[in-house]
Write a structure and sequence with these properties.
The complex is a heterodimer of chains A (about 400) and B (about 325). Chain A is about 40% helix and about 20% strand. Chain A has about 400 residues and is an alpha/beta fold. Chain A folds into two domains: about 240 residues, Thiamin diphosphate (ThDP)-binding fold, Pyr/PP domains (Rossmann fold); about 130 residues, Rossmann fold (3-Layer(aba) Sandwich). In chain A, β2, α2 and β3 form a beta-alpha-beta unit. The longest helix of chain A is centred in the middle third of the chain and has 33 residues. The relative contact order of chain A is 0.12. Chain B is of the alpha/beta class. In chain B, strands 2-1-3-4-6-5-7-8 form an eight-stranded mixed beta sheet, with helices on both faces. In chain B, β1, α3 and β2 form a beta-alpha-beta unit. Chain B starts with 10 loop residues before the first helix and ends in a 5-residue tail after the last helix. The N terminus of chain B is likely disordered. Classes of the chains: A alpha/beta (about 400), B alpha/beta (about 325). The complex binds thiamine diphosphate. The site of thiamine diphosphate has 18 residues of chain B, from α3, β3 and α5.
Chain lengths: ~400, ~325
């Protein structure tokens, strides 16, 4: 049986990776991910996991080394944040194209400029279309659970794709939270040994990462899309199994008091917990508020979203990143386009919030719901509470 | 002109007598690839693979060699091979090494040594891949990096790199009416690798195949990082006749432009004898269209620099001491 502990979430994420007995870690430090990097190396250097820790000289090399190791058949973990994730960008789509099931822990942080170390989602959003499965955690428990789930999903023979687990920088990484840490036996029963499909070894030589002409490049892209779309089925299976074994339920979109809701907030990441309190407060005041928390960003859960919004009059979608000169935040444009074909669909407004660590309090979420309830905003998207 | 004072006989010399007979008939870099006629890089890779043997994993940086050898669904490689991107061959190969090491230790793969070898062009090694190379070498992985230096970004159309020689004409440093080609001297990467305290660093050329293969074998045996800088002719980029591929490598040595040496635990040693009286650099330059615009004065500037570099190398050969 797992044990309830009080643990910093960054450290807990590294502990979760240790429970998965990774073979290789290749990590470059960056705030607010550094505790993950440091703790992974503690785990290796104390001999708690029999693994190699590669002290790479950059994030580009972190993911590149992770790929090299994964291609030999090793179970590999890496972690990064912000500028580091941007620095990896070149390598991200190659990882998924080569179907290497690497797990990456991301401590989400704003991107420069101006330079800012605090939390938002502007680092992960530009990576949206790189073919990685993306989980978003609300709290420390979810970070731990999703990290372990990530290996199982990634390495599943019908998936074979890299997975990133997003945890909000500071808001999650640096919080000490009560977490039920699964024990080794439980994880061993849940997570089988990784059996790679093809590896770099002279006993069975293969060429990986070859050149594709136009006659086949498009098919390769389509194949990657098919793989990630189909991964949802496996993700749902893994989550069901998790619930059976550990009693904690995971869904692509978690609904909170939406059954009779008139206005629902949409969040991704740790702000969901603040929004829950706002919903409770509004309910006390007689406002029929609800909340949808997105846990699975890629593959995007279209069917689940359509089901989740039924009966809701207005959706107030929050975004923690900008799409400059675009239609609004990335979550908003995704949701709006997902619902376009629906005969009956809610009105959708967009609040861009919490950029670069800007505090968003319970009262702010309440105000967003009140504004949204009145109908259309003056603009298609609003930088909530931002001067200028 | 300086003459060579000390040519230390190496194992290569003994090896020379019977080595051709011993060279593996097995091909790991196979015919049917799409390299240009007279490509020194493709030839060098073929020789390198023979010297490395079966228990090798190759990581290839983006560049001519990846393009000509891996057109899906074909491959020239019968060694395990991976290509990821342009700047990161050293990093990927370091991960290959770490992965193989961990899996072997944990009994998940056969218990025998498989060498991780990264290869890249001068661009992928000396420029965009420089940081990854430095990192991988500094970390002490059991891996070999071989740079195949054809002195420009050939894959993308002969653009200048930090391996491009002084005054060579390239498509981004053309011999213009005002500026006569590349304005700076070639970066000495082998020397920079020596400064990483590598147990083994060597320069090589497919024009001296046994010397090259012997160095590859030596580097393979090193339990740690090693580096070989291999100068390879590119007839397309050098604007030279295909059939002069081997000859140009020899002239590079005979003029002293590209001496073949190795540095073992800090000790410098020439591995191929350089004629007492070195040939003038002009003999090398005049066979290549990329130097066609050079005036006699400019050739003299190059000659003086080659003499100086040669003297510097000679000095190291005479005075270097082993650190083991
Ligand atoms: C990040 C990045 N920048 C630029 C390129 C374009 N590119 C591909 S190969 C190459 C040059 C390769 O030159 P070199 O490494 O010298 O190898 P060669 O082709 O001469 O063998 C360039 C510039 C790329 N693929 N990736």
């Amino acid at each position: 049986m797992g044990k309830r502990v009080g643990m910093e979430v960054a450290i807990a994420s590294a502990e979760a990776a240790a429970l998965c007995k990774f073979d290789v870690a290749a990590v470059y430090p960056i705030t607010p991910q550094s505790h993950v990097a440091e703790h992974l190396s503690d785990i290796v250097n104390d001999g708690r996991v029999d693994a190699s820790f590669i002290t790479v000289e950059s994030e580009h090399s972190a993911l590149s080394a992770a790929m090299g190791a994964s291609a030999t058949g090793a179970r590999v973990v890496t972690a990064t944040s912000s500028q580091g994730l941007l620095y990896m960008h070149e390598v991200l789509p190659i990882t998924s194209a080569m179907r290497l099931p690497i797990v990456m822990l991301i401590a989400n942080r704003a991107i420069s400029g101006p330079i800012n170390i605090w939390n938002d989602h502007s680092d992960i959003m530009p990576q949206r279309d790189t073919g990685w499965i993306s989980f978003f955690a609300d709290n420390g428990q979810e970070v731990v659970d999703m990290t372990i789930q990530a290996f199982k999903v990634a390495e599943h023979r019908e998936v074979m794709l890299p997975v990133n687990v997003n945890m909000d920088g500071f808001q999650l990484t640096h919080m000490v939270e009560p977490i039920i840490m699964p024990d080794q036996g439980e994880v061993d029963r849940f997570l089988p040994e990784y059996v790679p499909y093809a590896t770099l070894h002279p006993d069975r030589p293969v060429s990986m990462g070859t050149l594709a002409m136009p006659e086949i490049y498009a098919e390769a892209q389509k194949a990657k899309n098919v793989a990630i779309v189909n991964s949802k089925k496996i993700i749902l299976e893994v989550w069901k199994e998790w619930e059976k074994l550990f009693g904690r339920r995971y869904e692509p979109i978690q609904a909170y008091r939406t059954k009779d809701a008139d206005v629902a907030l949409v969040t991704m990441g740790s702000m969901g917990e603040t929004a829950e309190i706002a919903v409770e407060e509004l309910r006390k005041q007689g406002v029929k508020a609800g909340l949808l928390k997105i846990k699975l960003w890629r593959p995007f859960p279209f069917a689940e979203l359509r089901k989740a919004v039924q009966g809701i009059r207005v959706l107030a979608v929050t975004d923690r990143a900008c799409s400059f000169g675009g239609p609004g935040g990335p979550v908003f444009s995704e949701i709006r386009s997902a619902l376009y074909e629906e005969p009956v669909r809610p009105a959708i407004v967009n609040y861009i919030i919490g950029l670069g660590g800007r505090d968003v309090q319970v009262e702010d979420f309440m105000e967003m719901v009140r504004q949204a309830a009145r109908g259309k905003l003056s603009e298609p998207y609003v930088f909530y509470g931002v001067r200028g | 002109m300086t003459t060579v004072k000390k040519y230390t006989k190496s194992v290569v010399e003994n090896f020379d007598l019977y080595a051709p007979k011993l060279v593996s008939k097995e091909e790991f870099f196979n015919a049917g690839h799409r390299a240009c006629q007279g490509c020194g890089e493709a030839l060098a890779i073929r020789l390198m693979c023979k010297a490395l043997g079966k228990d090798t994993v190759i990581t290839n940086a983006t560049g001519c060699m990846e393009v000509i050898s891996s057109l899906y669904p074909t491959t020239a490689w019968t060694l395990p091979w991976i290509h990821v991107a342009f700047p990161n061959a050293a990093a990927v190969a370091s991960g290959v090494e770490a992965g193989l090491r961990a899996l072997r230790r944990k009994g998940k793969i056969a218990d025998r040594r498989v060498k991780s070898v990264a290869i890249g062009g001068d661009g992928g090694t000396m420029d965009i891949g420089f940081q990854a190379l430095s990192g991988a070498m500094e970390r002490g992985h059991d891996m070999l990096y071989v740079c195949f230096d054809n002195e420009a970004y050939m894959n993308t159309g002969i653009q200048r790199s930090s391996g491009t020689p002084f005054l060579a004409s390239t498509t981004t440093a053309p011999a213009g009416k005002k500026i006569p080609g590349n304005q700076v001297w070639k970066k000495n990467l082998a020397e920079i690798m020596v400064q990483h305290n590598l147990p083994y660093v060597a320069t090589a050329s497919p024009s001296y195949p046994l010397d090259f293969m012997n160095k590859v074998k030596k580097a393979r045996r090193v339990k740690g990082p090693s580096y070989i800088h291999c100068l390879v002719t590119c007839p397309t980029g050098w604007r030279s006749a295909s059939e002069t591929c081997i000859k140009l490598g020899r002239l590079a040595l005979e003029t002293g432009i590209f001496p073949l040496y190795e540095v073992e635990n800090g000790v410098y040693k020439l591995t191929v004898e350089i004629p007492e009286k070195r040939r003038p650099v002009e003999d090398y330059l005049k066979l290549q269209g990329r130097f066609r615009h050079l005036t006699p004065d400019q050739m003299q500037v190059i000659q003086a620099r080659v003499d100086l570099e040669f003297k510097k190398l000679q000095n190291k050969i005479d005075h270097s001491v082993s650190w083991v």
